[in-house]
Amino acid sequence: MKEFFEGMSTLEQTYWMVALIGSTIFLIIFILTFIGGGDSDMEADADDFVADDGGVGFQFFTFKGLVGFFTIFGWTGIVCINEGLSTIPTLIISSFAGLLMMVLTSLLFFWMHNLAESGTLKIKNAVGVICEVYLPIGANRSKMGKVQIKVQGSLRELEAITDNDEELKTGTMVKVIEIVSAEILLVQKLTQKN
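RESULT FIELD:
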């Protein structure tokens, strides 16, 4: 390896080191993504800083984005030097190419995140929906039951409780009035007024 770097300028050596290190990390991430380890703690940590607004949103500075920047920055710099460009144009072109790659990487993961979320149940969409009791629900929150409810276009079975004074039997039509927690619905029996 020492012989490889001997005839190079410091700038060219730097570009080669950045390109090789960036490419190695990129290859590791690429392999981990395909064997199921790609969304490790590195990505989970970024999510911890985002408020619960229903989505992560566009994130420019991510680990994968930085890896993409340095990989393309390094290889573009090497190509520019091999084409005989001087230091300033090489730095400008390689920086621009790296930033472009960073934007594209961020857009790709933003799009993939939104695609994955499109099938995720948003429990708040159940409020106001009329559904049917599937497993009996105890009176005054005494026993949790289940309802069959159509939310976001698909039929689901979700746990439910009620404040009604009577047990809600299987087949009873109810209306979701509140979300109690994670996936527990508060329902009330449909009457003529509802």
